[in-house]
What we know:
The complex is a heterodimer of chains A (400) and B (198).
Chain A: H1 8-23, E1 28-31, H2 36-49, E2 53-59, H3 67-76, E3 85-88, H4 90-97, H5 103-125, E4 129-131, H6 136-143, H7 160-164, E5 167-169, H8 177-186, H9 191-194, H10 214-231, E6 238-245, H11 255-265, E7 272-276, E8 281-285, E9 288-299, H12 301-307, H13 311-324, E10 328-337, E11 344-352, E12 360-361, H14 366-378, E13 384-388
Helix pairs in contact in A: 1-2, 1-8, 2-8, 4-5, 10-14, 11-13
Chain B: E1 6-7, H1 14-23, E2 30-31, H2 37-42, E3 48-50, H3 65-76, E4 81-84, H4 86-94, E5 98-114, E6 127-140, E7 145-150, E8 158-161, E9 166-169, H5 181-197
Parallel strand pairs in B: 1-2, 1-3, 3-4, 4-9
Antiparallel strand pairs in B: 5-6, 5-7, 7-8, 8-9
Amino acid sequence: MTLEGFRPSSYVTxxxxxxxxTVGNGKAIAAVSGGVDxxxxxxxxxxxxxxxxxxxxxxxxxxxxxxxENVKARLGEPSLGLKIKLVKxxxxxxxxxxxxxxxxxxxxxxxxxxxxxxxxxxRKDGCDFIVQGxxxxxxxxxxxxxxxxxxxxxxxxxxxxxxYGFRVIEPISDLYKDQVRILGRHLDVxxxxxxxxxxxxxxxxxxxxxxxxxxxxxxxxxxxxxIEEKLGPFNYDQYFGGVIxxxxxxxxxxxxxxxxxxxxxxxxxxxxxxxxxxxxxxxxKGDTRSYGRLVGVKIQDESRExxxxxxxxxxxxxxxxxxxxxxxxxxxxLVKEKRRGPPLSVIxxxxxxxxxxxxxxxxxxxKILKDIAESILKxxxxxxxxxxxxxxxxxxxxxx
Amino acid sequence: MTTIPVxxxxxQYNHLIARRLQELGVDSHLMPPSTPLxxxxxxxxxxxxxxGGPQSVRSLDALSDELRDASNLMTKIKLPMLxxxxxxxxMATTFGGTTNLARKPEFGPVEVSVSDExxxxxxxxxxxxxxxSHNDEIVAAPPRFKVLASSDNCTVQVMRHEKMNLxxxxxxxxxxxxxxxxxVFKNFLKVVxxxxxS
Lengths: 400, 198
């Protein structure tokens, strides 16, 4: 991979100078999450500000099992030297997002709470600035109206100073993930951190499709652990799960989704079943946000045994459905279901990407998917496990 | 050094175009389509690349502000120009062709068949996989433009002017998953080099 045109050492030098010019003799908070973006942004700022930088980690309650403690310990190690203040705010975030069904509203409520808390922390420490790890796809997607990323203010016309009482510093906002990783290695960030699996700012909130509830969150946490354990060894660029309620549309137009699917798969309609979920998921069609339906496709076990994984045919079914039905943004294939069980589905997603601007579906071996599904269903908190077979575009990487 | 500004029309991948060009050693940054001609002259621009965007260009009377500016820029500037996705369609509409709702939209991977290896498609026969994201398509290329490549769903995947260095591609050569995208940019840079020498 060639990365000409990007020189980490001169990048760090020029950003350090800019930060010093902006902050002067003042102090700044660094909002960190343990991810590579915010860690690298904080380290660049630390070069400029030294002890005048105060790293803060907000526990939003939408994090993975054990995450806050792990991140605090890891970033505090001498090689990185980021002494983290941990702010527990799970209750506030849950309160702020409860009852919201729309993905964009959930994201905006999250952003509001996030910056209120950062503003409070900044005042406590006498800081006039917040350093954050915003990268290029964050402002591109927010400005383009694809989805509201939680760390974008000024680029969409929100004045941080008058609204929250601080100014924003974004030392890596022109970079993509692969460039940030190179910068991280240049700054001696340990490899496991510079290559760490990405995790969105609003975390499990945007993987909990539709309204958030404790039941869905708990299922998501246990499933995430299983998915990360089982898919970790494969080194996919990103892999995770989402949870959605088994509520389906009864609209008759979707009967033809079934026909399109069976046609593309070359199977008799009796060997496929299609469900259209009621809760919407985020996609991007023709450079425009498309908040549409998720189609779940079931292929009879016997035909799958005969035809195997059917990756090419499934791809054709997926693109056929999404082209024909303007309101559909994603297609997932059923891996396993349980007759009786809570009306919740887990959707597994694994992709290959370089810069998170486009993504191809990873061809996870069917045996592994089955294994994941069995482990998830065994916990008794869900009744179906699907695998998302939609590239970006027309889907986005995250579900909401 | 070659200087190629990228005209930013609010598309997801516009910033990536500048990154790709930088990786090929080109001085490239985003510029708004309202940039006056003199400014492009002052910065010694050697060519322009115009990116995609969410707008529709079915009618020249109903263009967004950016695209009206981009359309004006196309007719006035006398530099080699590569237009991508929505500005490919805009180039068709601007020069007398027709853009309409696609019979079948394309999202994600698409096989593009090359009928003519002319200039920007040199070395890309017989076909390559490109990533796309469009609801509209060119239904009639403008007079004096020739079609160089097509896909199953979309006839005018690539076109060029017979005489001038004006090129349009419906797919996104700038995204990582269009693996041959760098070849398209390299071929375009050859056109730009020839133009600089002439």
